[in-house]
Input
Amino acid sequence: MTALHDAPPASLRAPEEKPVKKNRFRRDRSLLLMVVPAVVLLLVFNYAPMFGTATAFQRYSIYAGFWHSPWTGLETFRQLFADPLFWSALGNTLMLSLVQLVLFFPVPIALAMLLHSIMSNKIRTIVQSVVYLPHFFSWVLAVTIFQQMLGGAGALNQFLRQNGIGTWDVMTDPDTFALLVTSQVIWKEAGWGIIVFLAALAAIDTQLYEAAAADGAGRWRRMWHITLPGIRGVIVLMLVLRLGNVLTVGFEQMLIQRGAVGRDAAEVLDTYAYFYGVVNANFSLGAAATLFKGVLSLLFLLAANKIAHLLGEDGLYRR
Amino acid sequence: MNNFDRRRFLGLAGLGALSVASGGLLSACGDAKTSSGPGTTTQDQLQKLLPAYVPSELVKADIPSVMGANGFFSSPAFLKYPDNPVATTSGVPGKGGSYTTMTPLWGAIPSASGNSYYDAVNKAIGANLKLQPADGSNYDKVLPTLFAGDKLPDWVQIPSWNMGNLGFADAVNKFADLGPYLAGDAIKAYPNLAAIPTSAWQCCIWNGKLFGLPVYYSGATIAGTIFHRKDILAKEGINPDDIKTPEDLAELGKQLTSAAAGRWAFDDIFDAIGQIYKFPVDPNRWVIDDAGKIIHRYETPGIIEALNWYQAQAKAGHVHPDALADKREDAKQRFWSGKVAITGDGPGAWKGDDAKSGKAANPSYDRQAFKLLSTDGKPQIWMNPSAGMYSFLNAKLSGDQIKECLAIANYLAAPYGSKEYLTVNFGVEGTDYTMVDGNPVLTERGSKEVATTYQFLVTPISPTTVIAGQTQVVKDYAAWEADMVKYAAKPAFYGMNVTEPAQYANINQPMVDLVKDIRYGRKPVSAFQEGLKTWRAQGGDQLRAFYEDIRSKYGTGQ
Output
């Protein structure tokens, strides 16, 4: 039983590990060909724009361009780090990210396990479609729906008001904003998030469940000893990826609701870069803020990956 | 169905002004950020440059323009299109040239292929203008990339409130100097351009050179005002003419709010009450106080009073909760459906198509504006630059090409009542529009093809006209405007193009955020002084010194 999960012994792997380069290329060429469009996309839309980060070290002017704008070294970063609003944006970003990590991350896993346990294909497809759907709504629409349901003049509060019960406008309450945005994310994205976990669950050998059941293991034991270990690798992988994105907490979602709860609650790194970089055409400052964010994200990603390795998981790549 | 009218777009521009105002993006006639001087022009230079003014005597308005204070005047109004339109140009202005144009558009962008309106106007002007309208709401994000990539079209329109992030004293170097063609009497070669009043041309001058062609001239342009649902007030037995002070207005807050029934007195009218408390709203930012000191709008005593007034209304529950959640985009819906009784909007909101939309929700719908309120019985309203948008010709064009474009501009600027005006605004009769009760109304095809494109390159004086058959709206608006102009005043640095140094670009946003926090009730009014102190320390005082310098060199424009 254990053999199923362990990698094959080194003696068996060895010949595959070092094939002649040419052979390897011939063997993988169709796979490589399939990757080409994705690589081109990455180069054009992710790598080429990286030249733009150079503006973080300039006093960039749209009239002088990259080539003629004066170089200022780390001046923009000094300006950035001296701005208390930047630090407050960073603090908000980390706080919102942490709340989402704790409250959102487990939801798709639980949902996937629930769905997986439904026997009827029909019901499963229906539920799956219903929970997927909000993913395809734009944030403007999602926030509008929340506003119309939970807002001060929304369905819930009008009902409470008409029945003489006190009202609570959660949409404009800065103190509970973290919980509000997290529930919005759960509503919108949890259904979409289950896809990867469902695939992982489908990969678990059903014989294991049968064998365990025959040995007298109940529902919870099977979940604890078969299901969760079976998808542990994927969970860790998703967690590592999430940590790499920890400084990204929904630019649109924040931008739309920033006015409703105020800067102190909703300013995150991305909106900071937008207001102080793009809107005021202070592109150097915007570039510096996002470059800082990029470097920090990379460090988070590497650290998370390292921890995954220490825990004996593959993480993003095998050591 | 007539859902198109030039005033409507002026209205949108006005709405834009109101809604973007709180974003701090607006700028006076090119109050932009630059590294190479303020771009302002001295009075002597101005006198040499300004084109001659030769008014058009073409048609007589049904409701004539009324002269107000300080040279401002109300728009002439027409109840129907003048009979027997005459041609103001002879022959074909163009020489077959081909030019790319870009203009902002608030609305659906029509298809260019098989567009009979585009074809008809291009044929009439004898040139091929390749129109590229772009989404007006994102226009300010598109422009910097066009400049940075050196991909400016031949003829581009730029709204004054999009100039803020362009460093406009630098930007104009990319455009053709029109002074040699239009300054002084030279403009008389283009009679329709010469009929655009001088104050509009004054806004088109940077660095001592005439660069722009004015779009949407009006004799008294305002950012916005306070509107009410007259039908709702009447039901409560309220006479809107009795509302004269902010206290009267606050009283309405109590009377008109019935939250359980889903009705609140106010939408977000904060920008609109700037007029009552005498602090300017964008694009005007500076005031000269009684002692002669230049103060920013955040330093006026009025803003504190306004914050107190507004926060009290918000806390008392008289402001619609969606407005307090900053959902400005639905403000018109709330007003149409009667969820709010009092709102703030640009003057362009008060048009026939608005009456049509409102009456669709409620047949008794009646939008009216309060006569100007004041704290002391002496109302006053600061005027915006008289032309809100300008178009520019690319500096790469040759002299002959510039002349051809100006001849085309002369055709496009043909006044209301002319043959050309009908072609430019409505296309071909029978195909794009038909005359209904003496007014042009777009056909179904016309409403898909005709968009404000050519008109956004240059426009003549914009009269008030009947839209969607709503004649009463024209009469009401004309009467209100005639009253309003009596209180018109010039704000500091009026009609001057001042480009602020780039390093102060970022001190405004924290104040915009703070003001919002206070008026929505998230922070006490006392927090304002603390924010103001930071603003002063971070560059506000230096910015004042910058404007002191402008005053000593160029005057205040008042």
Observations:
- Residues 283-310 of chain A form the longest helix (28 residues).
- Chain A has two domains: 1-57, 74-310.
